[in-house]
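Quick entry, no commentary yet.
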Amino acid sequence: MKAMDFHLPTVIRTGNGIFQKTGDFLKQFVKGNKIFIVTDPGIQALGLAERLQTMLAKENYETEVFNQVKPNPRDYDCKAGGEAAKAFGADIIFALGGGSVIDSAKAIAILHTLGGEPQDYAGRDNVPQQVTPLVVVPTTAGTGAEVTRSSVITDTGKKTKFTIKDVHIAPALAIVDPELTYGLPPHLTASTGMDALVHAIEAYTCKLSNPIAEGLALQGMKHIYPYLREAVYNGDNEEARYNMMIGSTIAGMAFSHADVASVHCMAEAIGGLYDTPHGVANSMFLPYLIEFNAEADLYKHATIARTIGIATTEDSELTAAHRLVEEMKQLAKDISIPAFSSLTEVREEDFDYLAESAFLNGSTPSNARDITKEDYLFLYKKAFAD
């Protein structure tokens, strides 16, 4: 029996339309009057940041907007955000956006509190104290970052990604409103939805999984998989949007209390080098890692297939695991996730560098099956050739 702990410091408020109650929730759960809003140009163009400012002004909050967040968030933008938050005198860091915004806001909260560079806090448990209170409103159903203790940032000098993992950066409050995803275009719905599904799968199968994380991961799959295609094809389907958002949050809790694994290691390597959208990258490598990992734990991979309804108890574990591989390939095709070989920036001469980068990722030891740099190189080549 292995020891485990479960620490979720985030208060979660969820439901259709609850974004309108943001001011009420802030008064209940977070102290402070000066709110530094972290977002991106797309969210600001939609008017969501202005809508938030208007709501908060009515509650006598003072706000400032920082919108310099890019997909695959950059270290220098986080540094700029920390300096701007300090100049503003922020009491609360407020993230309004997808995973890149939330990860940036976590790093900004660290730098606002402690100074330095984002890289100073890379790895596990390297944030020495509680940071500026963080409130998050996710606008995608994907990363689950609203309930995690992780922040993934791009080191622009090295062209690699690093992860800060510490309970001190977990949000104080998450306001999870599925209605904010209604306008999300199909390609973003697809990539963020696949990201959420990968979180659930890797949380369930990785070596650091535990009974609580496993239960959350399986429940997350039950919300995500049956509704992902519908959410992509019919974005105004309220049931699909609700289940995707709730599933994403549950999957976030699962992997935050276990880990991700080699799908993420491979995805983060190409994200750091090519700036590939994270969910797209995860989708590209998921089937190949399932196939690679299944022999290490055939039961768990068969259980995933049975949980999402593509295999039954009458099927052998080997058959169920094989169906899972094929279904993940088909799902990616059905929702128009591009193939690895279709990315024009990908060069085969980069594969050795990518394999090394993936191998050095902090989540490599968590993979269900022991994996080497040579294995990663083989998997990059296989995904590219398929």
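second:
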Amino acid sequence: MDILHKSYEYGKSPLTPSSLSSSSNAFLFGGNISRSLSPLLHGILFRSVNASWTYHLAQTTDKNEFLAKLADLKSIGVSITMPNKVTFGPLLDDLTEEARGIGAVNTAFVRLDSTGNRRWIGTNTDCVGIREAILQHNPHAASKAKGQPAMVIGGGGAARSAIYALWKWFSPSEIYIANRLQSEVDDIADFFTKTMPSTRLRYIPDVNAAQNLPSPSIVIGTTPDYPPSEPGEVLCWEISEYILRKSKGGLLVDMCYMPSTETRLLCTARKAGWVVIRGTEVLVRVCVAQQVLWLERESNERGVEEAMAAIAMPDRNVKL
């Protein structure tokens, strides 16, 4: 995986021949994570390569607690989720291109400087998870999507990861954005003007504006799965539904999987003839990318298959 090769730009490996058998720890820092799937998935992936590492939940937004865990020499990896993805980034020693380009950190890994001191490097594997989930379904998706429009539904942090993944690896002509508030889209456009100046974004204000647009080849949903109630939410749904129903043969990724993996958006897309990818599949690919950086080895396919089987079980009301 390319992220592993690039990680050595930030320093040398901290691992030794006995590291996998040591009692090293990885942590998830977030606000409401008691029902997270991450311990289950990381446990499966660790076991698949015979790593005696343990993945812990750290339900906190306390920066001092975060820094204390980083200082522990047994800490080898960190996951970061809401509401810490932006606030914890500046506490790390350096950030990768992905973290800077998206403006949020969901993963940190250790590399050693020239004197052997540990450095914590922040990155964003959400975008890698999106890329890998799409390519696993269609290895030719990047060439098929090149020069075609794509679309993102939503205007939060996950939308930024989706925009980054689409623009960097799928080369769309432009990216449509449907969202409840234009002001959020304006903020995104301003941000990407600074971090990825070539990005072309188009806000869709209403269904009429969508009627004459070429159909997107890839759509990524990033909004919660609850019935729209506010006017902006209703309009966003109407735009999304219209585009899915007028288009055929595209690919939809819905990053939401709560309270059910069978979201309203995913069901609408499938009924309209789209290939669909559940948010839990993206979640597994995010965890795989994190472990590539921590274990410094490519993923074990047996472990990935076992993780996929675990999230294919009946719906769980959980979050990453």
